[in-house]
Each structure stands twice: as structure tokens, then as C-alpha cells.
Design goal:
InterPro entries: GP_PDE_dom (IPR030395), PLC-like_Pdiesterase_TIM-brl (IPR017946). It holds the Pfam family GDPD. This is Glycerophosphodiester phosphodiesterase. The chain is an alpha/beta fold. It contains eight helices and nine strands. β2 and β3 form a beta hairpin. The longest helix has 15 residues. The structure holds SN-glycerol-3-phosphate (G3P) and calcium ion.
């Protein structure tokens, strides 16, 4: 069962920072999950919200700020907002990277970066899984490169997610964990998809979800799995 550290080990370090991803590696997570947006000057920025307001002392939409401007606003007064390249270089093939596309404007840059690391740095497609609630973005990823593993995120409708996953030959379904039970977990797996629920943090929930024999769990506390 894969232990995937949500936004890095968010339970221990500020989310989506290099420190959070290093903590996930230190805790022997099998993977990290992160969120991406595009800066105004075309860099893939690792941050959850579409603004920097919550995480930094600055204000503004990520897609209106340049990389130097984004770097000038620190998280918890000491951490820079990372780019996706910086996270790839930190992880350096040591675990799976689940890239969640928060908008549909990032897909072509993310595909290009994955292809660059595969062709030039000896990474494999298995090092990546691209997920999104925006299924049109996933369709675009699939259209650009059918080898990139895709995870279909859903908060509400497993059947719809399954139907879409079949059309794009996704690797996994990433359901909100309250949607799952033992039976539907098995059904999804029998159709050939991994089941990777999010975000399971409480001991009681972890035990219940593990009992469904899911393929992995996205959690703020990878050491609790
Ligand atoms: O990947 C699943 C989970 O990360 C989706 O929720 O809001 O934490 O990005 P959120
Ligand atoms: Ca996410």
C-alpha cells in the first residue's frame, strides 16, 4: 500500500515546500502529492491556492506574478515557494510524484517537463502520476502523451470518474475517501485501476480505508499509514 504524502508531509512542515517534500522522503513515503499553478512568466509553481495570500505575507494571484516576485514572498518567513523543477531535483527519482493540476493552463508545461526528465535525466513514466478535478486538463494530458500515468480525482461521483478513466485509460482513481467501501474498491480494481483515496489523516479512518485494501493512501501523515 503506497503512502503518499499530501502536499509533502503537510502534518509536519508547511505544505508544498521543499522542506515538506524532504520530510516525506525522510519518513520513507512512497510518493508525494503536490499542487501546481502557472506564474505570469510561464514557470510551474507548486502551491495549492490560486493566490499567495494564505501561505505568504504577500497578496495576489499566482498567474499575475513572476517567478522573482513569487520567490520574494516567503512561507512561514523562511521557505521559498518552489517550482516543479526544484521539487523534481529534490526528489531525484526517490519516490512517486503525484502532480495535481489545479488549472487547465498548466498541462502542456507539465507534460513537457515530465518528458524532459524522462528523455534527459533517465526518469521513468512510473515516477509520475498527473491528477486533476478538471478532467478536461487530464484529457489534454492524454492527448499530448498517452504514456503519462493519469489519476482521475473525484469528490462526488465514482461512477462518472470510472467512465472517464476508461476513456483516457487512466492509471488510478483518486476518490474522496468517504466515497469508498470494500465493494466499490474491489470493483474499481477489477476494472484495472489503482484506488488512491485522499486525504486520510485520522487513525480510525486510516484503519477503515486500509481494510478496503486500497492501493495507496494520500495523507498528511505518511508515517501513520
Ligand atoms: O489529491 C487529492 C487532494 O490533494 C485534493 O484536495 O484540496 O488538498 O488539493 P486538495
Ligand atoms: Ca492536492
Amino acid at each position: 500500500m503506497l503512502k503518499i504524502a499530501h502536499r509533502g508531509a503537510k502534518g509536519y512542515e508547511p505544505e508544498n515546500t521543499l522542506q515538506a517534500f524532504q520530510k516525506a522522503l525522510d519518513l520513507n513515503a512512497d510518493g508525494i502529492e503536490l499542487d501546481v499553478h502557472l506564474s505570469v512568466d510561464g514557470h510551474i509553481i507548486v502551491i495549492h491556492d490560486d493566490t499567495i495570500d494564505k501561505m505568504t505575507s504577500g497578496k495576489g494571484f499566482v498567474n499575475t506574478l513572476s517567478l522573482p516576485e513569487l520567490k520574494s514572498f516567503l512561507i512561514a518567513e523562511k521557505h521559498e515557494i518552489p517550482t516543479l523543477n526544484e521539487v523534481f531535483n529534490l526528489v531525484d527519482k526517490k519516490c512517486l510524484i503525484n502532480i495535481e493540476l489545479k488549472n487547465s493552463d498548466t498541462f502542456s508545461k507539465v507534460v513537457a517537463l515530465i518528458e524532459e526528465y524522462i528523455s534527459e535525466k533517465n526518469w521513468k513514466y512510473e515516477h509520475f502520476i498527473v491528477s486533476s478535478f478538471d478532467w478536461s486538463a487530464l484529457q489534454h494530458v492524454h492527448d499530448l502523451n498517452q504514456n503519462i500515468p493519469i489519476g482521475v480525482l473525484t469528490e462526488t461521483d465514482l461512477n462518472l470518474a470510472l467512465a472517464f478513466a476508461e476513456t483516457i485509460k487512466a492509471k488510478a482513481i483518486h476518490p474522496y475517501y468517504h466515497l469508498l467501501n470494500e465493494e466499490n474498491t474491489k470493483e474499481i480494481q477489477e476494472k484495472g485501476f489503482l484506488v488512491l483515496p485522499w486525504t486520510v489523516n485520522i487513525e480510525e479512518d486510516i484503519q477503515k480505508i486500509k481494510s478496503f485494501k486500497v492501493d495507496g493512501i494520500i495523507t498528511d501523515f505518511p508515517d501513520k499509514i
